Amino acid sequence: MTTIVRGLLKLNWRSFQRLRASGLRRRTATIPADLESLERRALLSSGSATQSTFLSPRLARSAAVDVFVAERAARENALRARADGLANADPILGQRLTKLAQAREMQAAQTQDPASPRRFGVAVQRDIVYRNDGGHAVTLDLYRPVGPVPPGGWPAIVAFPGGGWRWASKKDYGQQVGGLASFGYVVAVADYTYGSATPGTKVWPVDFEDVRDAVRWVRGTADWIGVDPNRIAAMGVSSGAYMANMLGTYPDGPVSAEQLPPNPTAAGAPDGVSARVQAVVDFYGPTDMPLLWQEAVRTRPNINTFLGGTPDQFPGRYLAASPDQFVSHDDPPFLIFQGSNDPTVPPDQSQLLAAKLQNAGVPYRLMMLQGYAHGFPINMPAFNLTPDVLTFLDEALNGKPITG
Fold it and tell me: Edge-to-edge, what's the strand order for the sheet holding 154-160?
């Protein structure tokens, strides 16, 4: 009899432990949603939100809000308050919440540049027309730090999405780079004219004229948007990085679309507002168009509808559209990211640009990511490149030596 009773007690105790563990797992699984809903309520009640709503980055992506990145101190205080409250009712769950909040703080400390802490909320204005040529309107989204404009204005980043010169989304790319505004940059993410998939059609040089006007718009509206017109960087991925490379190397003045000008490295005179930039951040952008056609077979259809044909058909046009042809001593510093296993824009495209920059005496930093292919973002979960970008921009736009 005693043995039976002990067996029942043991069984009941094990059942109780399993049920308790199951309940803890269910409650633990709801922690992220609880925390983010708490963030939303706490921020709205505290008055931290300046235009509509400040949300955590995951909620910002899912809700597609126009104002995001809450003040970090408010989030931390809300999390701690929630953890303290739950600790009184359920010590185990409270401890889990506290550890989760601490882990978030540690992760943020590891992924941001200590010299450039995340201090600002970000306000977004979408679909601003920056160029309207013959009824063809091209737009950009503007991400600005929330707070007083510093003396002289914020530094600016004009960023361009990639998509093989055919398709892109400034809104999608803005989700990658718009958060740089929280470090004290005005970020303009600009669309430009995209090509079709029809062979024989072309968008060169209209798309390049678009991105030049994007820089001119930022510089020309510097007082209105709170920008320092002498501290503008160009940034992009893939074909968007191609545009950034062209902005970094092409002189002011008219575009020679069908052949190289007599002196492609000569300094030009701006027609009104200058389109030159003071720094370039290049994520695997093409630089030598004839070579790209030869070595990247999978990219040829996109090159064809960018330039309207093959190098044999338009040899002068291919050279005229190659950023490496215009590298000169007065070009701005470059930060170049390249995957070593990229079949779309092979590594020698970036290596060739780096060699020409070095020969011209232009400061640059080439980061070759071993094993990476085409298309990696700035903020990969396992390898966040944001600190490298912030360090470079601080150096390039403030006259400091380029490290690395």
Answer: 67-68, 121-133, 136-146, 186-190, 154-160, 227-237, 279-283, 334-339, 364-369
